[in-house]
Amino acid sequence: MPMTPIDLFTSAIHLHQDGQVNAEQQTMGSERERGSWLLTAVHAETDADVHGDHWEVHPDADEFVSCLSGAIRLILRPEQLGDEEEVKLTAGTAAIVPSGRWHRIALDAPGDIMAVTLPRGSRLEKRTDA
Q1: What is the pLDDT of residues 13-25, one digit of tens each?
Q2: How far is CA 41 from CA 23, 68, 77, 127, 128, in A?
Q3: Is residue 99's pLDDT more than 90?
Q4: 50, 24, 71: which is closest to 115 by C-alpha?
Q5: CATH superfamily of 11-24+37-126
Q6: Whether residue 30 has pLDDT greater than 60
Q7: β-pairing verdict for 103-117 and 37-44
Q8: Do 103 and 51 form a contact (C-beta atoms < 8 A)?
Q9: What is the pTM (predicted TM-score) of this model?
Q10: Pairwise CA distance, residues 114 & 62, whole Å
Q11: Which one has a higher pLDDT value, 80 or 59?
Q12: How far apart are CA 23 and CA 11, in angstroms?
């Protein structure tokens, strides 16, 4: 079978436990109940492109978040009382969000973001301060 390029910005890349990797059309939410790790890439022009008006959590795995170009802030919701924690990411940098930690992304400059996580059980929660 001939190898063909994969458009990372329209594809969901599934990394399976058995070593298989497959790509399919990116759809919001349908991948949440699968058992494979998911690699996604997003070109973001505004906070809406990264659902900046929602908090997100992945209860079953850490999430690797990388800023490929542009600049973002990865914002972690306080676990107890206190202030939000912000991690600034610029092109070529990444952070790991611990499993079970609510987080969101805010853009400082338009760019490209890549994330890898096990999305099973992931949830979004509308921000009340947005």
Answers
A1: 999 999 999 999 8
A2: 12, 9, 23, 23, 27
A3: yes
A4: 50
A5: Jelly Rolls (2.60.120.10)
A6: no
A7: antiparallel
A8: no
A9: 0.89
A10: 14
A11: 59
A12: 6
**Burial class of 48 by CB neighbour count within 10 A (0 to 12, 13 to 18, 19+):** exposed
CA angle 76, 14, 85 (to 5 degrees): 5
Length of the chain, please?
Answer: 130
The amino acid at 121: G
The encoded tokens of residue 90 equal 């610029």
Q: Would the pLDDT of 129 be above 90?
A: no
Query: Distance (Å, rounded) from C-alpha 63 to C-alpha 100?
Result: 10
User: What residue segments make up the domains of the chain, in order of their start?
Assistant: 11-24+37-126
The confidence score (pLDDT) of residue 80 equals 82
Instruction: Write the DSSP symbol of residue 96.
Output: E
